[in-house]
Specification:
Number of helices: 4
Shape: globular
Oligomer: single chain
CATH topology: EreA/ChaN-like  fold
Helix content: 10-25%
CATH superfamily: EreA-like (biosynthetic domain)
Strand order of the largest sheet: 4-3-8-5
Order of helices and strands: EEHEEHEHEEHE
Number of strands: 8
Largest sheet: 4 strands, mixed
Structural class: alpha+beta
């Protein structure tokens, strides 16, 4: 069973509750935590900084596991962290990692500041979904283009 963190530090040094931590506490072993990471694309963000807008996302900072996962030969894939792996891969999965965190207050120019750190990927998540290129979400009440 993974031990998903209840909180993670934001760039403003406040602590924010995570939905995964709450769900893990409520559902225990029945809950599966899947981290979703991506390389680049566009996201809808900015609620806390003047209203939602589409922002172009840079490739992840070099210290983020998102960058490492983006070097795979296939663009989109799922890694099951509950099973074995070759020793070099297992070493990386069992070590600490930074993951990019895009929230309502995300500012692309400060990408390296938006992350959370886990003691190990395999203890924080059951799987990791990597998406090469993302597209922005649309507000439900927004008119279609």
């Amino acid at each position: 069973m993974v031990s998903f963190p209840d909180e993670y530090p934001g760039p403003d040094v406040t602590r924010r509750r995570t939905a995964g931590g709450i769900l893990r506490r409520v559902h225990g072993r029945r809950y599966r935590s899947i981290a979703t990471v991506f390389d680049h694309g566009d996201v809808l963000t900015g609620w806390e900084t003047g209203g939602p807008k589409v922002c172009a996302m840079p490739s992840p900072h070099e210290s983020f596991i998102d960058r490492d996962l983006g070097t795979a030969r296939i663009p989109d894939y799922l890694v099951d962290l509950r099973h074995g792996a070759p020793p070099p891969v297992r070493h990386r999965l069992d070590g600490p990692a930074k993951l990019r965190t895009v929230s309502a207050a995300y500012v692309p120019e400060k990408d390296a500041e938006y992350h959370h750190t886990v003691g190990s990927l395999s203890s924080a998540f059951d799987a990791i979904l990597h998406i090469d290129q993302v597209t922005p979400t649309r507000l439900l009440n927004a008119p279609h283009p």
